[in-house]
Amino acid sequence: MACVEHLVLYGSEYCRLCERAEALLAQAGVAATEVDIGDDEALIEQYGTCIPVLRRTDTGEELGWPFDLFELQAFLD
Fold it and tell me: What homologous superfamily does CATH list for 2-76?
């Protein structure tokens, strides 16, 4: 699996939707740096009700859940 340095997956521990997002990333053959929003009040405020969120640090674009493999691949291109 290729690691794409500019991808961050915001989520939290025991989040089933986050696990599904991780599985889609694996299916696409990429990995993201995972950030648990529970460790940061600002991230809880920003993403608390909409995780998982995939963010490209190179462009600042975000892809919020729900997304499928097709949408993920378009986001990565």
Answer: Glutaredoxin (3.40.30.10)
Domain-wise residue ranges, the chain: 2-76
Amino acid at 40: D
- Give the sheet arrangement for strand 30-36, strand by strand: 30-36, 2-11, 53-56, 62-64
What string of pLDDT tens digits covers the 77 residues of the chain?
A: 444 568 999 999 999 999 999 999 999 999 999 999 998 999 999 999 999 999 999 999 999 999 999 999 999 98
